[in-house]
Amino acid sequence: MSDYNLLIDGKMVPGDLTMPVLNPATEEVLVQCPRASKQQLDQAVAAAKAAFPAWAATPIEERRKLVIKIAEAIEANGNDLARVLTSEQGKPLADATGEVMGMAAFFRYLGSLDLPMRVVEDSGDRRVEAYRRPLGVVGAIIPWNYPLLILSFKLPSALLAGNTLVVKPAPTTPLSTLRFAELVQDILPKGVLNVITDANDLGDHMTKHPDIRKISFTGSTATGQKVMASAAQTLKRITLELGGNDAGIVLDDVDPKKVAPGIFEGAFQNSGQVCLAIKRLYVHESVYDELCNELVAIAKNTVVDDGSKQGTKLGPLQNKMQYEKVKALLEDAHKNGKVIAGGSAMDRPGYFIEPTLVRDIKEGSRLVDEEQFGPVLPIIKYSDNEDVIRRANATNYGLGASVWSSDTARAHKIASRIEAGTVWINKHLDMAPNIPFGGAKHSGIGTEFAEEGLAEFTQLQIINAPPA
Length: 468
Ligand code: NAD
What we know:
By secondary structure, the protein is α/β, with parallel strands linked by helices. It contains 15 helices and 20 strands. The chain folds into 2 domains: 6-242 and 441-465, Aldehyde Dehydrogenase, Chain A, domain 1 (3-Layer(aba) Sandwich); 246-425, Aldehyde Dehydrogenase, Chain A, domain 2 (3-Layer(aba) Sandwich). A 7-stranded mixed beta sheet has the order 14-15-16-13-12-17-18, sandwiched between helices. Strands 9-8-7-10-11-19 form a 6-stranded mixed beta sheet, with helices on both faces. Strands 5-6-20 form a 3-stranded antiparallel beta sheet, with no helix packed on it. Bound molecules: nicotinamide-adenine-dinucleotide (NAD).
């Protein structure tokens, strides 16, 4: 028996089913985790629907207080949450602690926002007011790379706006979310937040459910397309945060030694399992060899180990499926490029892959064209700025990108021509709750965080009356 439970209608309840959750660093079963049946998902949706009218009618100031209380509960239980996160996700404990504290910061900031009424027109003809009303039950579907942080991209805004929720973490990383549910069950009125788990079998039912009004989804582009198709039947609102194949573009004027650490971090954080990681690095021919050498030196000094061990910089990949996918991409890399660091899976239990750098590789190889979502970076040579802009944009993805240069104005000109939701200059992966975030093209629909993200959890209502 596990001490984890689902949260349905204000109660922590066992699942009708169970499923094993593994530690990706050892491949050992951590726990038999509760798994919800379809009936339990329906119960969770019914509880959220029943709780909605009272929660929507609660003044926003009261809702805000509870969102901030959740931030306090996260902070007070940070060590426990981080430990559970490392055990199921694999990331180093220091990174897990950073994720938990980031989660609390998102709750604090997003909980502090407001949804004021806006007077659109107040004239002799009419008085028109615009209100932001809650939508109803929101379904939040979360991937396995940042289970807690991505939850905090959605939950505080949805709650503050007056919605109730059913949250579904990924099947391989449900434990930290269930621990979080336990912490907040007494903070929120019953039914306002429900957390269920599945074995990749309930997402479709959620997206079709007639009583769910919006799906806030983060995951792969392929699943996002399914979500969009099935949400169409009930005209659900959707926010989709999907995959990416971010280009890092290094101009000819950089100091390779100076930029290498930031580029390495931007590509390898969380073992490359970041939607917004640098996934293709374009380097001008004049600094190509030198930058490759600098990156190799960093890769060789990077400690890859069990995330619970002190000093670990990169943990394993999170699950077997991803591990197998990255191994197949490594084979492709050996055929289509020159591996200059790493290059193999590690000979030990767990889903470990050496941080790998591949030079002299081009478009047309799988490692460049596909989202690797792992610690393997292709480094591509270019010679002409117009050409590199075209190549960076020659993908269906459009999540992020970065331009590296000693001349910010020059980098800015290139940044403005990249088709991506976020383009950084001389950095990558700098995110904050006050900076709106969303993908272009196949990387998503809609925006998260900030006022723009909050608005997506609301329905605009216009009240148009005669002049007062
Ligand atoms: P995934 O698409 O396989 O799964 C994401 C979630 O969707 C899981 O909870 C899964 O159970 C659920 N799901 C599965 N089938 C479903 C269906 N038919 N309907 C509804 N939900 C369903 O993605 P993943 O492998 O967990 O995560 C990795 C991917 O997520 C990568 O492509 C990555 O780039 C992307 N991602 C994007 C962002 C972003 O903000 N843009 C952030 C993190 C990860």
